[in-house]
Amino acid sequence: MRRALTAWLEGVDLDEETRRDAVLAVSEAAANAAEHAYGFDGSGVVRVEALVTDGELRLSVADGGSWREPSADTDRGRGRAIMDALVSEVTIDSGVSGTIVRMKVPMKRGAPV
Amino acid sequence: MQGTMLEIDRRVEPTGDVVEVRGELDLTNVGTLEEEIVQTKARIVVLDLGFVVFLDSAGIRAIDVAYRRLRDAGRRLLVVAPPDSRAGWTFRVAGFDAGVVLDSVEAATEQAAD
């Protein structure tokens, strides 16, 4: 998943730092989905979307399960701390059909043409 | 899922064992690293992450577990991640204090001598 995301991001006019931040933030969100989301839902699909708009990189990670807020001293807690450090906004929408984590990564150098 | 590329080399130095890691560390292979660290024999083990190109919270967790397992056996794990390396960056982003992770194998060697 990281390779596909990295390859996509390399086609976007972003600086290397922003790409690196985005890949790690998405990895942490996807790892959370893998660990907590698929209790009874066997499909195990995590959908990652990335969009550049208005000078920011918007990412979403969607799964079919429910988000469980981890305690800070677990590795998932560290994962959440990493996400919070990397992105300017994290919103988590957890509903009947699943959870979507939306993140905005500030682009370090100007908006693409 | 495509395998994640990881290379782990061990060497023996006068101050202890050095475990040098290259490639990507994530959920798929952190168990391998943990075992490589624990299976060393020296009292002091230096984990050199300078050539790691990807590290996430799963990797940090595995290193933490290895650290505790060594400590419980009366041994010591020194973690090296240069400030300009990917691993060093990940530790900083994850909120680790400078001083927990060492800047170089030389610095670890000095600390091992204390």
User: How many DSSP-defined strands of chain B?
Assistant: 4
Approximate helicity band of chain B: 25-40%
Distance N terminus to C terminus of chain B?
44 Å
The major β-sheet of chain A equals:
4 strands, antiparallel
Integer average pLDDT of chain A: 78
Integer-rounded radius of gyration of chain B: 13 Å
Unreliable spans of chain B are: none
Describe the largest sheet of chain B.
4 strands, mixed
| Largest Cβ-defined interface | A-B, 18 and 18 residues
Structure, explained:
- The complex is a heterodimer of chains A (113) and B (114).
- Chain A is of the alpha+beta class and 113 residues long.
- Helix content of chain A is 37%, strand content 27%.
- Chain A is built from three helices and four strands.
- Chain A has helices at 2-10, 16-36, 75-86, and strands at residues 47-53, 56-63, 89-95, 98-106.
- A four-stranded antiparallel sheet of chain A has the order 1-2-4-3, covered by helices on one side.
- Chain A is globular.
- The mean pLDDT of chain A is 78.
- Chain B is an alpha/beta fold.
- In chain B, 37% of the residues lie in helices and 31% in strands.
- Chain B has helices at 30-38, 57-72, 86-93, 105-113, and strands spanning 6-13, 16-25, 44-55, 76-80.
- A four-stranded mixed sheet of chain B has the order 1-2-3-4, sandwiched between helices.
- In chain B, helix 1 (30-38) links the parallel strand 2 (16-25) and strand 3 (44-55).
- In chain B, helix 1 (30-38) packs parallel to helix 2.
- The longest helix of chain B is centred in the middle third of the chain and has 16 residues, at 57-72.
- Chain B is globular.
- The N and C termini of chain B lie far apart (44 Å).
- The mean pLDDT of chain B is 92.
- Chain A binds chain B through residues 1-3, 20, 23-24, 27-28, 31, 34, 75-76, 78-79, 81-82, 85-86, and chain B through 1-2, 24, 26-27, 54, 56-58, 60-61, 64, 86, 89-90, 93-95.
